[in-house]
Design goal:
heterodimer; A: alpha/beta; Rossmann fold; 3 domains; 6-stranded mixed β-sheet; 3-stranded antiparallel β-sheet; 10 helices; B: mainly alpha; ABC transporter involved in vitamin B12 uptake, BtuC; 12 helices; about 0% strand
Chain lengths: ~270, ~280
């Protein structure tokens, strides 16, 4: 399959603090890429570069042959679901109106939404289980409902690429599994390419065809099954322990092995 | 053909009220209400500059120069606040405060300098601060109606982009909305509505027209259409009441009457809303 996303030799720094160095990565059409790495490792920066919100100091990125800025301006190439959505609770918009706003860029200035697009938004709301809430104020949705609304909004312009920033943060374990299943269904139904950034290793290993481990540079870019245990430990030990993963009742599996085993194996080395 | 002297102030006040009310629905959730305060007070800086120019060049017609300078300062301040608040380079409260105090200080200083050399305050000083509906000319009333119409047309034409921007700027940008254009467009629209409100309500109180209608409307409806209709209705009722009170008893100024009426409506809605809940 052709590559939808090309990232070549990208450097980025905030002031004199380097965040990404020499990152080279491709994402083929239809693939799900999970980008993992420790906090401050450059995951969200990479996502912002792909969204055209930041420009690299060196290197090149393109999405379907155009720059990220051009891809965003087109409105129908990239869908984006942020980690935290600052929906103002008193902003007087209904669920349907918020979902339709995903069409604003694609539709263009001085034009009304097309009838087909509006029908598609209604179908999306049904698909994400918010049909009965379509006329309710968006500010009154629960966290899970809001997340589904954001997915609907991101998909309303029928994008090829869906970028998700920490999509499972703040969801309980059962909810995470349902969400991953739901995301996979959407991917299949809409023929999406997914890139998602997370430090939730459970979600990453469950969903990704490819994994990119990022911590300033790209340490690994391949299938999850071959992810080296020592790399996982080096990148995540602190995070895992801080998250209490060592004491978890349900084992977290990474690359076919329990995370706790990985941590203790590497600790013995 | 003669018209009632009440007609022109009423037309200008209603035009200002409707434009402010619609903008208010958008900028209250955005927490931009005090940007209007910053823009309104920058009128003092513009007028102050005109007064000083008038002192240096006594032949200049201050009645013409002052409004031009006020317009220039208000638009420049709107763009300046817009520049600093974009992407939060400077906290928006701080940006508003910086422009507000600088303009106010310059206006007061210019007034004192003018007073020192001419032994009187410049013409229009009090009207600028508190408004003066008696000074509303037919030309200004027509300009106000046209400007308010333009503001409403612009809001309608850019409705989906403005709503997208107001809901979440990043999401809007990555879905292809020209957020920079919309950001500055909203600043300019606020400046324009403040400018047409200033001669009626005054630069000190004009912000109330951008705060109270939208805030009260948000207590009455959680739908965009409902909020907009409530906001326009509240602003219209308060404006009619203010203008009619002034016509009945001329010592009751229009601006403060409108603002107090808006405040009373807000308190009533809040109290009855709480009681009903």
């Amino acid at each position: 399959m052709p590559a939808l996303v090309n990232i070549s030799d990208v450097d980025f720094s905030y002031g004199d603090q380097p965040v990404l160095q020499g990152v080279r990565l491709t994402v083929d059409e239809g693939v799900t890429l999970g980008v993992i790495g420790p906090n401050g490792g450059g995951k969200t920066t990479l996502l912002k570069l792909l969204l055209g919100l930041l420009r690299p100091q060196r290197g090149h990125l393109d999405i379907a042959g155009v720059s990220p800025v051009q891809a965003s301006r087109r409105g129908d190439l990239i869908g984006y679901m942020p980690q935290q959505f600052g929906i103002k609770p008193n902003f007087p918009l209904s669920v349907r109106e918020v979902a339709r706003l995903g069409l604003a860029g694609k539709t263009g200035l001085f034009r009304s939404y097309k009838r087909d697009d509006l029908t598609f938004v209604d179908q999306l709301l049904e698909r994400v289980g918010l049909k009965d809430f379509a006329d309710k104020p968006a500010g009154k949705l629960s966290g899970g409902q809001l997340q589904r609304l954001l997915i609907a909004r991101a998909l309303s312009a029928k994008p090829k690429l869906l970028l998700l920033d920490e999509p499972t943060t703040g969801i309980d374990r059962g909810g995470q599994e349902r969400f991953i299943e739901f995301l996979m269904d959407l991917k299949r139904d809409f023929g999406l390419t997914l890139v998602f950034v997370s430090h939730d290793l459970r979600a990453v290993s469950a969903i990704s065809d490819r994994i990119a481990c990022l911590n300033l540079t790209l340490h690994y870019h391949d299938v999850p099954q071959h992810l080296p245990a020592d790399l996982v430990y080096r990148m995540f030990a602190c995070d895992l322990e801080a998250m209490g993963i060592n004491n978890t009742a349900v084992p977290l599996t990474i690359a076919g092995r329990k995370a706790t085993d990985l941590v203790s194996d590497v600790a013995r080395i | 053909m003669t018209f009632d002297p009440l007609l022109y102030p009423l037309l200008a006040a209603l035009a200002m009220a409707v434009a402010c009310a619609v903008l208010s629905v958008l900028i209250v959730p955005q927490r931009w209400t005090f940007i209007g305060e910053g823009i309104g007070h920058s009128g003092m800086g513009g007028a102050g500059t005109a007064w000083i120019i008038g002192l240096i060049f006594p032949t200049i017609n201050l009645e013409r120069l002052a409004p031009l300078m006020i317009v220039a300062f208000c638009l420049a301040t709107a763009v300046g606040i817009g520049f600093f608040t974009r992407r939060q380079r400077v906290n928006s409260d701080a940006a508003i405060g910086i422009f507000l105090v600088a303009s106010l200080a310059w206006g007061l200083l210019a007034n004192n300098i003018y007073f020192h050399f001419r032994s009187s305050s410049p013409v229009g000083y009090n009207a600028l601060l508190w408004g003066n509906s008696a000074s509303i000319t037919p030309r200004f009333a027509r300009a106000s109606v046209a400007t308010a119409g333009l503001v409403l047309f612009t809001l309608f034409a850019f409705k989906k982009e403005i709503l997208s921007y107001c809901l979440d700027e990043t999401m809007a940008e990555v879905s292809g909305v020209p957020t920079r254009l919309i950001h500055y467009l909203l600043m300019i629209l606020m400046a324009v509505t403040v400018l047409i409100g200033m001669p009626i309500v005054g630069s000190i109180l004009v912000t109330a027209m951008l705060i109270l209608p939208g805030t009260t409307a948000s207590l009455l409806s959680d739908r965009l259409r409902g909020c907009t209709i409530w906001s326009m209705s509240i602003a219209t009722v308060a404006t009619l009441a203010g203008v009619l009170l002034n016509a009945w008893k001329s010592f009751l100024p229009v601006g403060p009457s409108i603002v107090l009426m808006l405040f009373v409506i807000f308190v009533c809605v809040y109290v009855f809303g709480r009681a009903r809940a």
